[in-house]
Specification:
mainly beta, five-stranded mixed beta sheet, globular
Length: 65
């Protein structure tokens, strides 16, 4: 189990941050990912594992005037 945006979910086939983004069909262009309180570098998502008990927040940028 991991906590994604405040909800407990089964980790399933998610092995790293990149696969988490893809499995949940989240567009990667305008988001920031935080794992256990640390903001992650987008270029490293494929190398950062998702492990049981992780707390992950995905924050979307919203434009407007």
């Amino acid at each position: 189990m991991i906590v994604l945006n405040g909800r407990s979910i089964d980790q399933g086939d998610v092995r790293n941050i990149d696969s988490l983004i893809k499995i949940h069909h989240i567009g990667a262009a305008a988001i920031v990912v935080e794992k256990n309180g640390v903001i992650l570098n987008k270029e490293q998502w494929a190398d950062i594992p998702v492990e049981d008990g992780d707390h992950i927040e995905i924050i979307r940028f919203v434009g407007g005037g």
